[in-house]
Amino acid sequence: MVKTAAVVALVLAALGGPAIYAYLRIGEVERAFDKPCVKVTELENDQADWIPAIPSMQKHSELLVSWAIAISGGIVALITIRTLHQFQTIRFLYLLLAPALSFIIGSIWAAVAFQSRASYLLLNRCADSEGTLNGLLLVQTDLFQYSLATLVIFALVCLIELILGTVRFGSDRS
Predict the structure, then answer these.
(1) 3-state class of 89 per DSSP?
(2) Closest CA to 150 of 102, 109, 79
(3) Which residue in 56, 74, 108, 172 has the most C-beta neighbors within 10 A?
């Protein structure tokens, strides 16, 4: 009973920590949304040069979302597969997948915020004087990179365990 509670606590901490971090990072940028809209027509031409960059930024965001969805599908497949490999040296290796999944979900959430902000700015012809689009894209990229870093650590430990021969393949978890 205590062992199960400890595992549940570890999973919740592994999921919650990155989720709270993503929430705080996205919230920092979203606080600037409350400022009044400055119409592009009221700006000088050199200040309105950012508008052609939005489609390129949107493509970058969409590419990250596509990869994030593919990676999250792979993580879910690893977690839900009927037979798991048992690692003898590090028993809780699969817990590394929890923060990776949490960071990926945060990255997708940042992409949704980015798309809605870009749509608002384009439809209302407002200037992004606070740099919110760039900020959201940076947060999305950072969260995606943190997820990849966690997955690389998982893959390296798996590879080391395979090389050392300390893995029992396909043992049934039921």
Answers:
(1) coil
(2) 102
(3) 108
Please answer whether residues 110 and 30 qualify as being in contact, where contact means their C-beta atoms are separated by less than 8 angstroms.
no
Cβ neighbours of residue 106 closer than 8 Å, sequence gap 6 or more: 18, 19, 21, 22, 23, 25, 26, 143
User: pLDDT tens-digit profile of 2-54?
Assistant: 677 777 777 778 778 888 888 888 888 888 777 777 776 655 555 556 667 77
Rounded to the nearest 5 degrees, what angle is found at the Cα of 150, between the Cα atoms of 149 and 156?
A: 85
Beta bridge partners of 84: 171
Kindly write down the DSSP assignment for every residue of 145-156, as one continuous string: HHHHHHHHHHHH
Q: CA 99, CA 163: separation in Å to the nearest integer?
A: 25
Q: What domain range includes position 73?
A: 2-172
Number of domains observed in the structure of the chain: 1
Q: What's the rounded Cα separation, in Å, for the pair 36 and 123?
A: 15
**Mean per-residue pLDDT, 150-162:** 87
pTM over 0.90: no
The neighbouring-strand residues paired with 86 are: 168
